[in-house]
Amino acid sequence: MSFSAKSLDFLFENTLNDSKVWFNEHKEDYKQNVVLPFAELVTDLTDTMLGIDDSFICDPKKISRLYRDARYSKGKSIFRDYVWYSFSRSREAYDVPGYYFSISPGGFSYGCGYYYASTETMNILRGLILSNDKVWKSALKAYKSQNTFELYGEMYKRDHYPEETDERREWLNRRQIGVSCDSKDFDLLFSDRLAEKVAADFKAIAPVYDLFIIVSEKKNAKIKG
Question: Which residues, other chains included, contact 88 with Cβ-Cβ below 8 Å and sequence gap of 6+?
Answer without folding.
Answer: 56, 57, 96, 97, 98, 99
